[in-house]
Amino acid sequence: MAPAFAARLKDIASIEGVRQNQLSGYGLVAGLNGTGDSQQAIFTVQSVLNMLRRRGLTLNINPRQLQIKNVAAVSVTAALPAFARQGNHIDAQVSSLGDAKSLQGGTLLTTPLFGPDGQVYAVAQGPVSLGGGFSTHAAGASAQKSHPTAAFLAGGALVEREVPVTLGAEGVLTLALHQPDFTTAGRVAAAVNDTLGRPAARPVDAGTIAVELGAASEAEAVATATAIEHVEVTPDTAARVILNERTGTVIIGSDVHIMPIAIAHGSLNITVKTDFGVSQPAPFSQGQTVVVPDTTLKVEEGARQNLVLLRPGVNLGDLVSGLNALGVTPQDLIAILQAIQTAGALQAELEIM
């Protein structure tokens, strides 16, 4: 039977060297219905002239006198997966670089995608999709849905160059945890050894586990990776409380405990209201009519709360139940947790976003 809260090894760790590679390129989206870059985006006009020149057509014209409203300059990005082969299709993202209003209905012209080493690894081309977004304008009115200047190119990039991946270099398969933790690393090593039936795995540090292979070959590395990727391990996490004051979001980990502490919480409602009155001068006084602001401040204190005593080693459920007994809101809960940490009673890491 799998242990409670267990996760597959392939979901909490990756094999060193097996990773995505970021690609990017500069291109043009054509076929827009007058929603492309304006004359102010001079680099778009220059790009069109350069493209025509490469096709054998030279225009002796000042770029600032040329208006191309059906074309937009874009940045094209993609992630090249590990083990991608020549001829595979990958997705790409298209983002406007100029002042185009919308990329709806456009077609990306042939765009080479470069890696960090300056080599071309893929070529993107094809119709772009806004994913249900649109932007329309009329006299005195406009309507917009989603983000019309960013689009998606589904399977529109063709892989031209492969990235070599070497597995099992020097007879060792290295696993990298997504969330480094010494306890989790030890559990992974023990679970891998139980599966392989030999002491092959050992934790190198909090985020790395080295697995000794029976033979220094890629075939052995693939066989070992296949055998251990479905091993189930219960990852250990640090006690953490995450607060987002902008949205009022509070996330409390299951291992959060607090020391004995008494809590009393009462809320204040502060209302600042400004009314504007008119001061009218007397007839024939040669005075001026002025607007006089009348500001009032109102402070109301909520109902008095009783002290709530939280016992030693209170866990997540007890903590939430005790705070709910006070009728606190998420914003109140944020203030209470910050006060508990200041008092030194919170046995967890408090992270404020």
Description:
This protein is α+β, with helices and mostly antiparallel strands. The chain has three domains: 7-17 and 166-233; 21-159, no CATH class; 241-352, no CATH class. Helix content is 19%, strand content 38%. The protein has six helices and 23 strands. Strands 3-4-5-10-7-6 form a six-stranded antiparallel barrel. A four-stranded antiparallel β-sheet has the order 2-11-13-12. Strands 16-15-23 form a three-stranded mixed β-sheet, covered by helices on one side. Strand 6 (107-114) and strand 7 (120-127) form a beta hairpin. The radius of gyration is 31 Å and the shape is flat. The model is unreliable at 268-272 and 297-301 (pLDDT under 50).
Helix content bin: 10-25%
Number of helices: 6
Structural class: alpha+beta
Mean pLDDT: 80
User: Strand content of the residues, in percent?
Assistant: 35-45%
Distance between the termini: 38 Å
Give the spatial strand order of the biggest sheet.
Answer: 3-4-5-10-7-6
How do the SSEs run, as a string of H and E? EHEEHEEEEEEEEHEEHEEEEEEEEHHEE
The low-pLDDT segments are 268-272, 297-301
